[in-house]
Amino acid sequence: MNELLQRKPGLRAWLLLAPSFLWLLIFFIIPLGIIVVYSFLERDLYGGVVWKWTLENYRRVFDPLYFKTFLYSLWIAFLTAFFSLLFGYPLAYYIATRPEKTRNALVLALMIPFWTNFLVRTYAWLTLLRTNTGLINVWLQEWGIIDHPLPLFGNTFAITLGLVYGWMPDMILPIYAALEQLDRSLLEAAEDLYASGWQVFRRVIWPLSLPGVIAGTMLVFIPSLGAFVTPAILGGGKRLMIGNVITNQFLGAHDWPFGSALSVLMMAVMLLATLIYFRTGGEEARRGGLG
Amino acid sequence: MPDASSAAVELRDVVKRFGDVVAVDHVSLRIAPGEFFALLGPSGSGKTTTLRMIGGFELPTEGEVLIEGEPQGYKPPYQRPVNTVFQNYALFPHMTVAQNIAFGLEMRGVPKEEIRRRVSEMLDLVRLSGYERRRPHQLSGGEQQRVALARALINRPKVLLLDEPLGALDLKLRKAMQLELKAIQEQVGITFIYVTHDQEEAITMANRIAVMNKGKVLQVGTPQEVYEQPQTFFVADFIGDTNFLPVQVMQVTAPVEVMTESGTRLTASWAEPTLRTGVKAVMAVRPERMHLYRPGSGPEGPEWNRIEGIIRQVIYKGLDIRYEVFVAGECSLHVRMPVGRSEGTFQRGEHVIVAWPRAAARVFRSES
Asked: Residue A105 pLDDT more than 90?
């Protein structure tokens, strides 16, 4: 056996890869295949499928009722990525420019929220944001700053806030990693060559951190697009995202074929967004300077 | 020495402290326009900090930096008429060679057409025409070095600051770049201030050298002056090879007289002013200024020092032969003799006379 493996290094590589390959096959590729197949079948009345091919599910996906939810989800995902970048970048820059000890402590602090379950943390936001009994509105009214409760809950604001809160570390970490590697002497060189503070950022820091920005944006955009816990809790049942619709199709309406069609469409959009973003972003990162 | 108005860079009693550490300790320097000026010293001598204070990357704790007679105060780097070539070049990795070189002009809003013309002039100057569209990582160390030089020179600074610019190159390339840098400096006529820890490099390139140690400037002079007339033990030791003989001072006024531990009387051309009669000191002589003779021969008289010894080691180096001579009760002396002298070569174990002229000997306080 040993001798055989030594003579055929290819075989050895396959043996080493086999466990992870099997894992992916059983838990990723096969379920994905089932979803794709189901999306072309008819439902039966009891939550199963009827083996009759149809395109009806995909026609329904573009029904304005669902398609609007789809566009709304894209909008939320965009807002989440945008605000995570807006608030996350300065924070990542701040952490990356601290002395090493402080840096490690701050990165650790960034991880601490993950020690608590996401669901619990989202409910915590609920107690803060709720319209009549939420702490923010109660306090603001007690202090006489406002007369009527602010619309903090059950809307786009609440969902975006919850998602930005949840996913911002995924934006910060890759940007931090890119900025931390940035050679300080490049900044001095730019300054020496008459660049102002803003120009140093625009022409040197930003282009060199772009790989981190791209990775972070994708890491935030994709899970936000498919989110269902946050909109379910902070959307107050009034604003739904595509993730909630899909959950409903599988668990509530027992319409697996339609739920599958929605899932396939969402994955297609994510794949497309990723490809476009990496293509243009990569180009920008390569060109960097003049342009 | 130039007068105040004509100094390209002047440091007036500059001190830089980092917490309790004094990195630069009361340094005053005047650097003339067009000079190739080297700041030479071991690591931690304060030479890079001095350079960074001229460039505006550090501000002096005390004292003043003047460029072309104008005090620089708290001006940031981009407001000073100087540019820097950084130790590891600090080329922008996301820009092409041409974009790197154009950066300074672009930041100052020079018209595109002029930028293009001057970039191509610079590429000619550093012999990199045709490399416009390459990226820094596609260039060799020497090419990167030339891009860094072009990127700084294109701005036509009054003074160019160079921080160990050749430190990352291998020996052969470094030698070639030394000559090239010097040629470029003569061609553009800009004042160069050059930081290095390599004494040979400083001697090869500079018009004048400031030797630094522990934050202080110990001596400023032409390469010939610092090599032939070192003012302190440190300078004599740091620059070139030197023999140090432990001696006792007999007379400090010219001609300086000293006595070795075994009682041989020697004379020297100069003694450090702080020395007093009777104290212990060292006599410094360059290996190439010492000559070997067979016993009973060689020059004699008040202008010459003679001491007996035994050849311990002979090393043939092609251009010259290096002898290590053991001097009774004293120490080893290193002697460098050109190949092909009439005496022929000496053998290991041979008794010899080591002789050197008074003019080649200087006496210092011994450090440590």
From this structure: yes
CB contact under 8 A, B107 and A191: no
Residue B1 has pLDDT above 50, yes or no: no
Q: Where are the domains of chain B?
A: 4-234, 241-364
- Interface size A-B, in CB pairs within 8 Å, comes to 71
Confidence check: pLDDT of B298 > 90: no
Going along chain A from its start, the domains and CATH numbers come out as 58-287 (1.10.3720.10)
* pLDDT score of A25 more than 80: yes
3-state SS assignment for residue B72: coil
- Predicted model pTM: 0.80
Looking at domain B4-234, its CATH architecture is 3-Layer(aba) Sandwich (3.40)
β strands within chain A, DSSP E: 41-43, 49-53
DSSP annotation string for A248-259: IIIIIS--HHHH
For residues B253 and B78, give the distance between their C-alpha atoms in angstroms, rounded to a whole number: 53
Task: Name which of B107, B160, B164 to mutate to probe chain A: the one with the most chain A Cβ atoms within 10 A of its Cβ.
Answer: B107
Q: Which CATH superfamily is domain B241-364 in?
A: Nucleic acid-binding proteins (2.40.50.140)
Same CATH topology for B4-234 and B241-364? no
Residues 6+ apart with CB under 8 A from A145: none
Instruction: Give the count of beta carbons closer than 10 Å to the beta carbon of residue B301.
Output: 8
Given the cut 0.85, state whether the ipTM is greater than it: no
The confidence score (pLDDT) of residue A290 equals 35
**CB nearest to A199's CB, from B88, B107, B151:** B107
Residue in A185, A192, A289 closest to B95 by CB: A289
- What is the DSSP-derived secondary structure letter of residue B269? S
CB-nearest partner of A185 from B76, B90, B151: B90
pLDDT digits (tens, 9 = 90+) for A143-178: 888 888 888 888 999 999 999 999 999 999 999 999
